[in-house]
Design brief:
The chain has 301 residues and is of the alpha/beta class. It folds into three domains: 82 residues, Arc Repressor Mutant, subunit A, CATH 1.10.10.10; 95 residues, 3-Layer(aba) Sandwich (D-Maltodextrin-Binding Protein, domain 2), CATH 3.40.190.10; 100 residues, 3-Layer(aba) Sandwich (D-Maltodextrin-Binding Protein, domain 2), CATH 3.40.190. It is 38% helix and 23% strand. The strands form four sheets. Strands 7, 8, 9, 12, 13 and 14 form a six-stranded mixed β-sheet that branches. Strands 4-3-5-15-6 form a five-stranded mixed β-sheet, with helices on one face. A two-stranded antiparallel sheet has the order 1-2. Strand 8 and strand 9 form a beta hairpin. The longest helix is centred in the first third of the chain and has 23 residues. It is rod-shaped. It starts with a helix and ends in an 8-residue tail after the last helix. The mean pLDDT is 89. Keywords: DNA-binding, Transcription, Transcription regulation.
């Protein structure tokens, strides 16, 4: 159905329910003559008389009433659906869809959601963990989370974390058969447990400092995962070295289950940023979400 046909049907229903061209014209913002022409055009197109007109009244014919009975509920439901959208303008409600890497979801998003969702029960936050660089527009996400350097230039970016301390760790069992590396060059003799990046189908390179310059090292190794939790498990099992966020191995380091190596050669990663395509028409729920995850240096995550 064309848009003009839908508009004509809507105008007819308004006239039939108002039982007056005058009142209907006022509701629709049209002149009486224009509204009369619309109804006449609709009747000619359908080949049936829809309204009985006298000098004092307007009433639907039997055919017209049947059409009103069928159309009016649908049109009123559509009006209500549009009216319901005002809730998204006036109060925090609705679903916010976020795509994020695993570590950011665990250490930044999830903790920030606790207070937000307890005080705003009509907000739902859906977090999809994905190491691919999702297109938030085409994939219908409200926002994405990535390391600062990976945010597209045409996106609005907001820092949500401090820089991320990283470390290279191995188990005591692993170091029994593989002497601990003394410099980044020694890593060539070691086995790494790697993270696969779906955006490039490559293995995540380990960032290291060597001779005052940052280098990227791609490790050979027996296992490749797409989640850091499994990398941690395999590292604890002595399969190889893991390159992991330091906050994910704190307990294992304290208990002696893992040993950190090359500490001075592992720089932090740039902090996480939330990215989204526009500053316009943000719902109250999304504005509250932005405030909840915004990085404040004085507030530890």
């Amino acid at each position: 159905m064309r848009r003009d046909e839908m508009a004509d049907l809507t105008a007819f229903v308004v006239v039939a329910e108002a039982r007056s061209f005058t009142r209907a014209a006022g509701k629709l913002g049209l002149s009486q003559s224009a509204l009369s022409q619309i109804v006449r055009r609709l009747e000619e197109r359908l080949g049936v008389r829809l309204l009985a007109r006298t000098t004092r009244s307007v009433a639907p014919t039997e055919a017209g009433q049947r059409l009103v009975d069928q159309l009016a509920p649908m049109l009123h439901e559509l009006d209500q659906s549009i009216a319901d959208l005002s809730e998204f303008r006036d109060k925090p409600a609705g679903t916010i869809r976020i795509t994020s890497v695993e570590h950011a979801a665990k250490t930044v998003l999830n903790p920030a959601m606790s207070a937000l969702l307890k005080s705003n029960p009509d907000i739902t936050v859906e977090i999809t963990v994905d190491y691919g660089l999702a297109d938030v527009v085409s994939d219908r996400f409200d926002a994405g989370v990535r390391l600062g350097e990976h945010v597209a230039r045409d996106m609005i970016a907001m820092r949500i974390s401090a820089d991320i301390p990283m470390c290279i760790v191995g188990s005591p069992e692993y170091f029994e058969s593989h002497p601990a590396p003394k410099s980044p060059r020694d890593l060539a003799r070691h086995r790494g447990i790697n993270l696969r990046l779906p955006s490039s189908e490559t293995l995540n390179a380990w960032r290291l400092m060597q001779d005052g310059e940052e280098i990227r090292v791609r490790m050979d190794g027996p296992l490749v995962f797409n989640t850091i939790d499994l990398i941690l498990d395999a590292t604890l099992d002595g399969v190889g070295l893991g390159y992991l966020p330091e906050d994910q191995v704190t307990n294992a380091l304290s208990s002696g289950k893992l040993i950190k190596v090359l500490d001075d050669a592992v720089p932090p990663l740039p902090g996480y940023h939330l990215y989204y395509p526009s500053r316009r028409h943000h719902s109250p729920a999304f504005k509250l979400f932005l405030d909840a995850v915004r990085y404040r240096p004085s507030i530890p995550r």
